[in-house]
Amino acid sequence: MERAEKEINGGVALAVPKHKNKYLLLKRSEENSSSGEWTFPGGKIENGENPEEAALRELKEETGLNGEIIETGEAYISEGELGHWKIFPSHIEVDQKEIELNHEHSKHKWLSLEQLKNHDTMGKMKSLKALDLI
Question: pTM for the complete prediction?
């Protein structure tokens, strides 16, 4: 018996920001779905955007950081509190560590790849796997 295809709610661009071999994780605020979860900056791909443009926009909106895309990874399907989404990860090099969080997140931390591998995140590190970082 075949399983029915899960309905995809839309596309989400995910930024995996790196600065001098440290990666940025954000903790979702109580104002958001999945509050308290650690994740990378990201959000819905808006009309007319490609995933890379959306990742850079979301990074800027959520952290104030600008960056340059190093590479993009294979898209994958992820299940969240609000349904199933197609995730488009982008590995982004940023030029500074000082960030300004918007209302979507309450905390941040910069971690080495080794620390990141052992950290519990909302996406279970699928984005790092899709980018061949782990």
Answer: 0.88
